[in-house]
Amino acid sequence: MRVAVLVSGSGSNLQALIDHARSDPVAEIEIVVVIADRRHAGGLDRARAAGIPADVVEWSAFPDRPSFTDAIIASAERAGAEALVLAGFMRVLSSAAVDSFPIINVHPALLPAFPGAHAVREALAHGVKMTGVTVHFVDELVDHGPIIAQEAVPVIEGDTIESLHARIQQVEHRLYPEVIRAFAQGRLSVEGRKVTWKRDG
Ligand code: GRF
Questions:
Q1: Mean pLDDT in runs of 10 for the chain (201 residues)?
Q2: Where are the alpha helices (DSSP H) in 87-129?
Q3: Using omega within 30 degrees of 0 as the cis cutoff, is the peptide bond preceding 112 cis?
């Protein structure tokens, strides 16, 4: 499956996807373009280093969310993408994106707890003993679509935002490629909010 990966930051999840795609002899996932909303996103360097086309669609260059979204859609379509994979992409797209592509996102908390951009900080401040990772389909609302996979990460005495996020990211880097691979294999089916996994092989 040809996917466009959207990034805003360092792109460690993008790197996990690149490494997974490289090690997969069947090449079920092909990253055809990496699109960033900022020209200094570290993910762009990771894309270039891997020989993947990198495109910048700068948020500040557009007057509103719909026109920004249209430019993202156009970039993904030019590359021949069949799906969008959000990997630390910090912009909310308008509904035209959901109408154009299946979209998958990874979130650093157990949704529906702690949606939004500060999930790790908020979970820690709330005093939860368990947080984790959610991979979900994107719908019109933020951090809301049908949940594909979740994995718990315990909060440890003395955790900081950084230490907890680092352990969450270890899980993300394993879980996200697994989910994208299952999606590429056509093993995920969605009925309402419920996602069912078909067995591998
Ligand atoms: C990840 O923790 C992801 O869950 C969240 O943003 C972070 C991105 O990290 N949506 P990276 O850019 O993949 O390193």
A1: 97 98 87 97 98 97 98 98 98 97 98 98 98 98 97 98 98 98 96 95 70
A2: 95-100, 119-126
A3: yes
Determine the atom of ligand 1 nearest the C-alpha atom of 107: 4
> Are the C-beta atoms of residues 29 and 22 closer than 8 Å to each other?
no
Alpha-carbon span 136 to 159, nearest angstrom: 26
Task: Catalytic residue, from 20, 107, 136, 165: name it.
Answer: 107
Q: Measured from the CA of 172, which atom of ligand 1 is nearest?
A: 4
> What separation, in Å, do the N-terminal and C-terminal C-alpha atoms of the chain show?
17
How far is Cα 65 from Cα 52, in angstroms, rounded to an integer? Answer: 26
Going from the C-alpha of 148 to that of each of 69, 103, 114, the distances in angstroms are 24, 12, 17
Q: What tens digit of pLDDT does each residue of 42-60 get?
A: 999 999 999 999 999 999 9
Pairing of strands 130-137, 103-107: antiparallel
Chain segment 151-170, per-residue pLDDT in tens: 999 999 999 999 999 999 99
Question: 107 an active-site residue?
Answer: yes
Best mutation site among 106, 144, 167 for ligand 1, i.e. most ligand atoms within 8 A of its Cβ?
Answer: 106
Q: DSSP letter at 60?
A: G
Q: Which secondary-structure segment (H or E) carries 143?
A: none
Q: What angle do CA 28, 29, 35 make, to 5 degrees?
A: 170
